[in-house]
Design a protein that fits this description.
7 helices; about 25% strand; 9 strands; single chain; seven-stranded mixed sheet; about 240 residues; Rossmann fold; two-stranded antiparallel ribbon; alpha/beta
């Protein structure tokens, strides 16, 4: 999800720390892996932020805002799944969780989640050339992925997503709302978003509207203004 992050070196500690850990309070629908060995210790690994007391709640909130639109079915595809932060939650809604990610250690993550009863099938690959047949998925999910693509590539990815979705089924995506305050917040977290973000939320929604027949946009706000946008767009219904 978003920039790639994944577990540290394999071993018994990691297998023990994957035990389900429900975040309490308003975030109790999101189930995150538990334990410090779950994610990389690299300074640019955003997985650690999910466990922070304040900023972590905002990170979890944006994930939940996307997941509530994933209403269940046979197969879901998450593009850019990173360390699989959504998998424990999605496993309660879908029969199969498919994932494609450029760099994630797919075999290792697949084994770990399967050991926890999550039926996941993971691959390395690109959103621009999805390795799946036509009309295969009930839902496609992307959380903080599309802003990392150029506007032209967002259009290419949108067409690929439409191809692999069953007719009448949705793509759900989340992207940050780019504002000066948001750029400052990322800077304070150690990220220069200009090196990572190439499309705005407006460019992403425009591309989706070009490819899909219907959709809606939901904006998450803070006391400082809008911070995140969630879109849900549908393929044409069966004829």
């Amino acid at each position: 999800m978003g920039a790639t992050f994944w577990a540290s070196s394999p071993g018994t500690d990691l297998e023990q720390n994957i035990m389900k850990h429900a975040i309490t309070g308003s975030d109790d629908e999101l189930v995150l892996p538990h334990g410090r060995n779950w994610f990389s210790r690299a300074v640019d690994d955003p997985a650690r932020i999910y466990y922070w007391p304040i900023v972590g709640r905002l990170y979890r909130k944006r994930v939940l805002a996307c997941l509530k639109h994933c209403t269940g079915g046979d197969k879901i595809l998450e593009i850019g799944f990173g360390s699989g932060v959504t998998f424990l939650t999605l496993g309660k809604k879908y029969g199969e969780i498919h994932g494609v990610d450029l760099h994630a250690p797919v075999n290792r993550l697949q084994d770990l989640f399967r050991s926890q009863g999550v039926n996941c099938l993971l691959r390395n690959g690109s959103a621009l050339a999805l390795p799946y047949p036509d009309e295969y998925f009930d839902t496609v999910l992307l959380i903080s992925i599309l802003e990392h693509l150029t506007p032209g590539d967002v259009r290419l990815a949108s067409r690929e997503i439409r191809r692999v979705l069953k007719r009448g089924q949705p793509v759900v995506y989340g992207v940050p709302v780019e504002r000066p305050l948001m750029r400052l917040a990322f800077f304070l977290l150690g990220y220069n978003i200009r090196k990572h973000h190439f499309s705005t939320e407006t460019q992403v929604s425009e591309a989706m509207r070009e490819v899909f027949v219907d959709g809606r946009i939901e904006t998450l706000s803070s006391p400082f203004g809008p911070i995140y946008q969630v879109g849900k767009f549908w393929t044409p219904p069966p004829s």
